Amino acid sequence: MESILANEMFNLKLDCTESVVPRGPTYQNVPVTNKACAWQGATLGNDYVRGKDYLKNGLSYKYSHVWRNFGILIGFLCFFIAMNLFASEYIKPLFYNDGPEAVQHFINRWFRRSATHSTTSSSSPENIKLKEDVVVKSASL
């Protein structure tokens, strides 16, 4: 949230003519230098607040934190991708017989058989049956 606000409001000028103090019909002739905006981060004599000052004084946000927060986001992304890779490689599924492991074992056997029968043609009945089984097994998941 800090990065979004800092990025959007950094070069913004917020007009605060409606919340200038003192205000009213009796103060029409008071010069702007004697009026102040009621917003946090306002400077005396201005009828606007710079977005950077509002973020710094009102919310304690700094524009320099944008890239720090982006780095933290990339760090989380790398961590969770690494955890996902680790978990998918080493953690067994809950339903071992019904899950994708059955297809994986079958595909591994198919690769093993095709490597040992490399001299046979790809249109042999054995290879055609194996390919059909792979399609049927993966469609059932």
Automatic annotation (TrEMBL):
<keyword id="KW-1133">Transmembrane helix</keyword>
<keyword id="KW-0472">Membrane</keyword>
<keyword id="KW-0813">Transport</keyword>
<dbReference type="GO" id="GO:0042626">
    <property type="term" value="F:ATPase-coupled transmembrane transporter activity"/>
</dbReference>
<dbReference type="GO" id="GO:0005524">
    <property type="term" value="F:ATP binding"/>
</dbReference>
<feature type="domain" description="CDR ABC transporter">
    <location>
        <begin position="21"/>
        <end position="92"/>
    </location>
</feature>
<protein>
    <recommendedName>
        <fullName>CDR ABC transporter domain-containing protein</fullName>
    </recommendedName>
</protein>
<keyword id="KW-0812">Transmembrane</keyword>
<dbReference type="Pfam" id="PF06422">
    <property type="entry name" value="PDR_CDR"/>
</dbReference>
<feature type="transmembrane region" description="Helical">
    <location>
        <begin position="66"/>
        <end position="87"/>
    </location>
</feature>
<dbReference type="GO" id="GO:0016020">
    <property type="term" value="C:membrane"/>
</dbReference>
<dbReference type="InterPro" id="IPR010929">
    <property type="entry name" value="PDR_CDR_ABC"/>
</dbReference>
